[in-house]
Amino acid sequence: MRVARTIAATALAITGLVATTGTTYAADKPDDTPEVTKGPCKYTETPEDPAARPVSLPPDPAHTPDKGRVKVLLATNQGPMLLTLDRAKAPCTVQSFLHLAKKRFYDFTTCHRLTQYPTLKVLQCGDPSGTGEKGPGYRYKDELPTDLPNWPGDTTGTRKVYARGTLAMANAGANTNGSQFFLVFADSRLRPDYTVFGSIDRLGLATLDRVNAGGIKPTADNPTPVDGAPNLKTDILLARRTG
């Protein structure tokens, strides 16, 4: 069943950030059986949710690189964003993100969603269709954070701080990571259900602040939305590993 890739949320109760949702190579694999990579990440093909742009499944070696940091430049029409990906936090996620960047999956794509809820302030990108409904044609497991602080005043411990400058994956439920990701421009309150795999540099945050200041496009039904397409159309022109 396709899961909607938008948040059903209010300013008081944010339910989450959602996105679209990889290989057995046996010659006798049935045509209707999804391919699954043989390594520990088990990237899984999603025939029911085909790729927005043709791309292969990521490499999945027996040992996923899990040490060190990698720099990726997102060049956008609103300014540059330098991302630092942390392999130790989320090795399968970093491996997938680098694969998609290398295959130019993110080039010339539009960041489709800006949120300005009191407790959720992010820019969401990574869908070449620009709709928030599509992904890379595969999914993979969560690598959820365990070290996020509790949201101030939350006595249940179920709401965490996704701090300004956090880079995390959007999803459509457990273990449905694909290509969509979100960039946090102000501390946000979320359940720890979203893989954190890096951070955003100072110039990138300045770019995000610019997009945020531009506001959200009004609609016929809502002249002052807090969730929707940014007024300042934000296009990723290229995504490239720089180190």
Q: Could you characterize what this model shows?
A:
It is a single chain. With 243 residues, the protein is mostly beta strands. It is built from two helices and 14 strands. It has one domain: Beta Barrel (Cyclophilin). Helix content is 10%, strand content 25%. The strands form three sheets. Strands 4-14-2-3-12-9-10-6-5-13 form a ten-stranded antiparallel sheet, covered by helices on one side.
What keywords describe this structure?
mainly beta; Cyclophilin; 2 helices; 25% strand; globular; disordered N terminus
What's the SSE blueprint?
Elements (H helix, E strand, L loop, with lengths): L43 E2 L23 E8 L2 E8 L4 H12 L6 E2 L2 E3 L5 E5 L12 E2 L20 E3 L3 E4 L11 E6 L1 E3 L5 E5 L1 H12 L13 E2 L6 E7 L2
Antiparallel strand pairs: 1-7, 2-3, 2-14, 3-12, 4-14, 5-6, 5-13, 6-10, 8-11, 9-10, 9-12
